[in-house]
Amino acid sequence: MATKVQSFMSSQPLPTDFPVIYLEGSAILQMPIRLTVLEAVSFKQTCQNLIQADSPPEKIFIDFQNTTFMDSSGLGSLVSNFKNSQEKGIQVILRHVTPQVMAVLTLTGLDQVFPIESLWTLAPIATDKPTDTGKQHSRKADPLPQTHPSVASWMKRLIDIVGSLVGLVITSILLIPIAIAIQIDDPGPIFFKQTRCGWMGKRFAIWKFRSMCVDAEARKSQIKNQVQGAFFKNDNDPRITKVGNFLRRTSLDELPQFWNVLKGEMSLVGTRPPTPDEVERYEVPEWQRLDVKPGMTGEWQVKGRSKVRSFEDVIRLDLQYQQNWSLVYDLQLIFKTITILFNKNSGAV
Questions:
Q1: Using one digit for the tens of pLDDT, what is the confidence trace for 170-205?
Q2: Residue 20: its pLDDT value, please?
Q3: How far apart are the C-alpha atoms of 165 and 155, rounded to whole Å?
Q4: Lower Cβ count inside 10 Å, N or C end of the chain?
């Protein structure tokens, strides 16, 4: 799986193993300037070799002194190595973390998880103007990585804002009849909130109209998963209510997600938003799907939807979207999605 995904994104050769310096029972890994999928695969393998050695080190220092770019795959390899080391009782410590890397860690909350030995300090910028000593330690927010052109596109964001506002108007019109139908069919909350992973793996709360019974999450372990890989699906899920079945078939259950789009957590078009337990099962190359914002629709909706039966297909469609992305392509996917909503054979994702 990892090989297929990696070759799908790039034909470049893998780099050699990272150089390791041993010092008093510790191992020091010097990270490269860029930590993307190619370097991340090698980085994970190098750490695995250290962990599985006959005499593994007590500590592994990961030195980010030279690193100025890290994408979701680099972040995924870091998380994976951290977990594997903890299982073996080996301490992983980050050192000389640059502002670029710190921005990613802060975005995802991992700056509170990883032990960080020291922060990278920026040298003051030379200027002819007098320096205000009271503000000399302040600086702009750390730069976030531009992992994909769509992330930095102001036009895509404008389309998201306009589209989400229109969508929220439609949602407000349909809110009362949908709420009444849900209450009559299965009394309980109108909305369903679930944690999903967005750009770079940052967690956020996704909103939907409730389409399952109130104890659906507690009963999930009793339901058979009919698909392969790191996501869950059952066509005849007994937890889905009668009204919920209609909401899913027409995708009306997803209308509240326009709020997520307006907040910038999602986009109208993007990749399928995974759950945290799905992300925990990812191999390094599979983290590439998190290089763009998740969307209310995308390749997986218009080409796969309920027919997708393997995680490999989800990855393929998500990465295909990244390769083909353009503003025109986004609009095409939106129009195709609207067409599919009127197809009685389309099902919820």
A1: 999 999 999 999 999 989 999 999 999 999 999 999
A2: 86
A3: 15
A4: N
Distance from C-alpha of 159 to C-alpha of 301, rounded to nearest angstrom:
19
- In angstroms, the first-to-last Cα distance of the chain is 22
Predicted TM-score (pTM) of the model is: 0.79
The tokens for 68 are 């100025």
Label the pairing between strands 69-70 and 34-35.
parallel
Coil, strand or helix: which one is 26?
strand
Burial class (CB in 10 A: 0-12, 13-18, 19+), 1: middle
Distance CA 37, CA 2 (A): 11
Backbone angles phi, psi at 146, to 5 degrees: -90, 85
What number of CA atoms fall less than 13 Å from residue 172's CA on the CB side?
7
Residue with tokens 């997708």: 308
Distance, in Å, from the CA atom of 49 to the CA atom of 33, rounded to the nearest integer, reads 22
φ, ψ for residue 229, nearest 5 deg: 100, -160
Of residues 308 and 183, the one with the higher pLDDT is: 183
Q: β-pairing, 203-209 with 191-197?
A: antiparallel
* β-pairing verdict for 91-95 and 26-30: unpaired
Helix (H) or strand (E) holding 196: strand 191-197
Q: Tell me the CA distances in angstroms from 114 to 53, 261, 317, 323, one per residue in order.
A: 23, 30, 32, 32
Q: Which of 75, 79, 82 is nearest to 100 (CA)?
A: 75
Q: Which is nearest to 99 in space by CA: 144, 70, 142?
A: 142
Tokens standing for residue 195: 């944690």
Closest of 221, 249, 254 to residue 235, by C-alpha: 249
Contact by Cβ (8 Å): 267, 295: yes
pLDDT tens sequence across 237-294: 788 889 988 998 888 999 999 999 999 999 999 998 999 988 888 888 889 999 999 9
Which residues are CB-neighbours of 135 under 8 A, at least 6 positions away?
none
CA distance 211 to 323: 33
